[in-house]
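Subject: sequence -> structure tokens, single chain

Hey, anyone have a minute? Need the predicted structure for the following. Not urgent.
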Amino acid sequence: MFGWEFPPHISGGLGTACFGLTRGLSSLGTEVLFVMPSASGDEDQSSVKIINASDVQAETDTKEASYLLDKVEYVRIGSNLVPYLDPLSFSELVEDQKKLQIEECKITIGSRYKFSGKYGSNLMEEVARYAMIAAQIALKNRFDVIHAHDWLTYLAGVAAKRVTGKPLVVHMHATEFDRSGDNINTLVYDIEKLGMEMADRVITVSNLTRNIVINKYGIPPGKVITVHNAVDLKEHGSDSITRGVPESIVTFLGRITFQKGPEYFIEAAAKVLRKKNNVRFVMAGSGDLLNRSIRRAARLGISSRFHFTGFLKGTDVQKMFAYSDVYVMPSVSEPFGISPLEAMRAGVPTIISKQSGVSEVLNHVIKVDFWDVDALADSIYALLTYPALRDMVAREGYEEVNTLKWENAARQVNEIYYRVTGR
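Reply:
Had a minute. Here:
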């Protein structure tokens, strides 16, 4: 299994899903070798064996590097590019840059490449190098099936399949259309499309995502299977938390990016605060819209009631849920959305957008269109104002989420493994 992150070092739901799924698979007797670019050594290996790609000696050659770079069509043009080059000169420059990159991506035989495992400016180079190391790891280990999570690891999965002939399952947790709307990164799209075309099966986290995969990537419907995510049911011990403010707390927790709809949360907060002033709104997360969100809250005059915590993880997430009276996920396009399950597990009444995959499996939440700020504000106000409604949504939601177990999701994934291996 190829992943990019694993708890406790995560940046979002991808690592959480990988952790939950591998625990579920382990409970069913499936052994998992989990490969990641940069392991810290403190990952929970009770259900998996972690393989750190940064510890693996490379045995790749220029031919393999050329193949991978050709597949991703990745060419970095330097900033000293001369304007108004004629087509022939530009083509020559591109070819020279491509040859240079092949040599850069080539890792000396017997050496190791230290991956950052982050999402920085050299991400594409790390993705390509990770794929080359993946081929070496695949040749040195015994396994029945390859499972690659999200586009960052698709090339690794493809490389492992090429050198071993073993079946490949790719897991689509979020498409480039979810992350970027219609203004997609074509390189990422190409990698996603290649991975899904090369795969024997494609797992999507919702029917919403399945439809995108079929209609926008042209993947045959019979190859695409939905397996909904679940929630970790272990107790977190946050019930004893005492908060330091008397007001009600409404929480947004996630990346502060276009996909997650933070601006709709801010607009709804302003509407609620016009009617009810004993409320505080919290935006927990980081992202490229953070500064704009701070400025918008200031312009609306709600800064004294609106708080930005920055990125939270681990126990801090559980504490935030324990502080909260209402949880809101107003995502513009959410392939699934694990955070509402975690909020409901903590007994917090929850509001989600209808444009989320998790809405397919939840009934005891309030669902609104992400763009309908009035409906979102009305829902927040109602949960804060009417105790009977709040208690009912929290109680029934808690019961409902306890039925969404990773073991059930893992059982479906196991069935996919059996199919692709012919067992």
